[in-house]
Design brief:
Belongs to the diaminopimelate epimerase family. Its main location: cytoplasm. It holds the Pfam family DAP_epimerase. Pathway: Amino-acid biosynthesis; L-lysine biosynthesis via DAP pathway; DL-2,6-diaminopimelate from LL-2,6-diaminopimelate: step 1/1. The protein is of the alpha+beta class. It folds into two domains: about 140 residues, Diaminopimelate Epimerase, Chain A, domain 1 (Roll), CATH 3.10.310.10; about 130 residues, Roll (Diaminopimelate Epimerase, Chain A, domain 1). The protein is built from five helices and 17 strands. The protein has a 17-stranded mixed sheet that branches. It is globular, with a radius of gyration of 19 Å. It starts with 5 loop residues before the first strand and ends with a helix. The chain binds the ligand N[C@@H](CCC[C@H](N)C(=O)O)C(=O)O. Ligand LBFN2T5F binds next to helix 2 and helix 3.
Length: about 290
């Protein structure tokens, strides 16, 4: 039997780039090995991750959310591993739905492994995601790169982050070749690590080493974790002041604006772009699926 043709798109949010595979009925088999080949920048299409677009009702992990959100973002990292949440991914996912005529400008809900997220597609092209609550479990960790080490704050945005304030972003070294953190009891499933410097009042810049993808040019959940960690470091807690706190976060691939509200929820706003679409060559797919 010949392999069926599978459509894909390519998109990015602040240069965190994704292969998008629309598959409403959850009919496409995407084992980790195939995802890793599709995300390979030389032998595949290339991406920091893959967005498998499935109707919630058709996916066992999302069926319970189908009443609240028609579409499920089945997110995979570039190495094929599964993650709970991807902030830039949700924005690009929503942009794809809009482009495909499956969502309109305004509000929609997207199911993720981290729960249902509210998304707003604005007229000016910006996309805002209600990311839910940031959790800051007490335990900190130590992050070491090239002989330098820093205390890092443990922030959970549905997925795990360790946020380290450094003197210079260059001190994070070559994050492509040096995984800066080894598995520990604090993060048995691995962790995303953010390196942060100040740029001005409520304005920071960061680099990130993503679990399952290596250094990327942006990470939405990471930017939220950084904004919340920076606020606490600055003595700002919206739950105490009763006023929202907004931080601007510069990343190598662009800028994200993060607001934490008095109820502890976090909104993230940034761009989302579709750059191409095509068809995966069935012969190639057969060789990598083998
Ligand atoms: N790039 C994403 C985060 C993707 C998941 C992450 N690598 C993990 O394993 O938790 C974002 O924009 O949030």
């Amino acid at each position: 039997m010949s392999t069926p043709q599978i459509a894909f798109l390519k998109g990015h949010g602040t240069e965190n780039d994704f292969v998008i595979v629309p598959d409403p009925d959850n009919a496409v088999d995407l084992p980790a090995s195939v995802v890793a080949r599709l995300c390979d920048r030389r032998a595949g299409i290339g991406g920091d991750g893959l967005l498998h677009v499935v109707r919630s009702a058709a996916h066992p992990e999302a069926r319970a959310m189908a009443e609240q959100a028609e579409w499920f973002m089945d997110y995979r990292n570039a190495d094929g591993s599964v993650a709970e949440m991807c902030g830039n991914g949700v924005r690009v996912f929503a942009r794809y739905l809009q482009r495909a005529g499956l969502a309109a400008e305004g509000d929609l809900a997207v199911a993720t492994r981290g729960g249902v997220k509210g998304v707003h597609l604005a007229k000016d092209g910006a996309v805002t995601v209600s990311m839910g609550h940031a959790r800051l479990p007490g335990s900190g960790v130590r992050v070491t790169v090239d002989g330098r080490s820093w205390d890092a704050r443990n922030v959970n945005m549905g997925n795990p982050h360790a946020v380290a304030f450094v003197e210079d972003l260059a001190h994070a070294g070559d994050l492509r070749s040096v995984p800066p953190f080894s598995p520990s009891s604090v993060y048995p499933d691995g962790v995303n690590i953010e390196f942060v410097v100040d740029r001005g009042p409520r304005h920071v810049a960061m680099r990130v080493h993503e679990r399952g993808s290596g250094e990327t040019r942006s990470c939405g959940t990471g930017a939220c974790a950084v904004a919340v960690a920076a606020a606490r470091r600055d003595g700002v807690d919206p739950a105490v002041t009763g006023a929202p706190a907004t931080y601007t976060v510069d990343l190598p691939g662009g800028t994200l604006v993060i607001t934490e509200f008095p109820d502890g929820t976090v909104d993230m706003t940034g761009p989302a772009v579709i750059v191409a679409e095509g068809v995966i060559d069935p012969d190639w797919l057969e060789t990598v699926s083998g």
